[in-house]
Amino acid sequence: MIDLIIKNAKVATASDLFICDIGVDKEKIVFLEKNSLKEAKRIIDAKNQYVLPGGVDGHCHLDQRTKDGTEMSDNFESGSRSAAFGGTTTIMPFAIQFKGESLRKIIDEYHTRANDQSYIDYTFHPIISDASSKVIGQELPAMVKDGYTHFKIYMTYEDLQLNDREILDTLEAAGREKAVVMIHAENYECLKWLTEKLEAEGKTDPVHHSDSRPGVVESEATNRAIALSRITKTPILFVHVSDREAIETIRNAQNKGYKIYAETCPQYLFLKRDDLKKDNFEGAKYICSPPPRDPENQKYVWNGIQNGTFDILSSDHAPFNFKGDKGKMINGDKTPFKNIPNGVPGLETRLPLLFSEGVLGKKISINKFVEVTSTNPAKIYGLYPKKGTISIGSDADIVIWDTGIEKKIKNSDLHHDTDYTPYEGMTVKCWPGTVISRGNVVVEDGKLLGKKGFGKFLKSEISNYVY
Ligand code: DUC
Ligand code: ZN
Ligand code: ZN
Q1: Model confidence pTM above 0.90
Q2: CA distances in angstroms from 32 to 9, 36, 258, 379, listed in the order given
Q3: Best exposed site among 89, 202, 286, 429 by fewest CB in 10 Å?
Q4: Measured in angstroms, how far is the CA atom of residue 239 from the centroid of ligand 1?
Q5: How many Cα atoms are found within 13 Å in the side-chain-facing hemisphere of 395?
Q6: pLDDT tens, 321-373?
Q7: Residue 239 C-alpha to ligand 2 middle, in angstroms?
Q8: Residue 318 beta carbon below 6 angstroms from any ligand 1 atom
Q9: CA 124 to chain CA mean position, Å
């Protein structure tokens, strides 16, 4: 007898929508059949609700080392727990390299942070901030061979940024090794210059974070990174794209046939610049980079999802507590914006927000939802078809969604360890009811049934996107 059958499932993949029963045995999907007469140790009736592949969150930060005295408020345990409650069954956080460090060392160190902690499966993206010839020439090829086939580089942040020449060297090596390069595109010199001007005028409140990083800071770097990608003939993937001009620049390059991929995040669909103006330092809760833009800009982000400019929608969960001296208030409630840690939490709310406003709000199809939140990140980061779809032989990572409900998002109901959500008070019309990871029920009826440490590290294959 097999382990589980989910009956009467309205299954959506990135390409299809059909009603069937799903058979699960030994962590895998073993059949998709209409009105199956087979027996199983457990039967769950999905009652014709949507049954989707578990979400794959291609970009989140957990227990990431910092250099400024701040501390992330979520680690692998709390982050993976809240991801599971939000319908995500695979996460991809970042192993950060600071200058002078070996990639091998930082990957090993990050494994010790993750080991036996996660409720769901995970892989890592290394961050390369030291593009020395040893790192690029020896460590990067070894890393790719070991199953870390995707990494991130930065065009900003004092400690992390690579200059154009270093980016060229890194892209050339990535192209040779067939690694996916994720790029944080903001022009560091421009935002530093703007920051100094704002400080000289005494403008250090949270909202001025947004003034230090106007859209052109992002679109200039985007345009330049595309040029560097063309020169080295290496595909690139822009992460957390927010600005309309940057979106147009990416779209133009894609239309010309360049292999340019892009990710956006809920903060650019649901948050806005004015949120950073909130009183009592509350604006700091919304500081992330790039910053939330104006409501008009949100239409361009939706359109970029609709027309395929964006391949992926990730959370970019970058959690810092609002209160206390390790997070947003590292220097009290007058901390100048320059010193406020960047990032917003969002692992648990990513899928309900997009499903509710996107699918139920008729902005995108259910197939597009699955594509950008599960299938494409699995494909781009070399985990497909093990992850990212409902098909025979795939891991049984499955979410049964409740729709026809109304739920107000409240931080007190979420399962991360962060003391706020920027989406407090927003109403969604769906929520994951049952969340299954490799055939094991992790969350059911609002209860955590999964086990810490069940989640395993996933080695990535070379992505088809960088052929
Ligand atoms: N970049 C990220 O990827 N996440 C949070 C903040 C940032 O600058
Ligand atoms: Zn970034
Ligand atoms: Zn990020």
Answers
A1: yes
A2: 10, 9, 38, 22
A3: 202
A4: 9
A5: 26
A6: 999 999 999 999 999 999 999 999 999 999 999 999 999 999 999 999 999 99
A7: 7
A8: yes
A9: 12
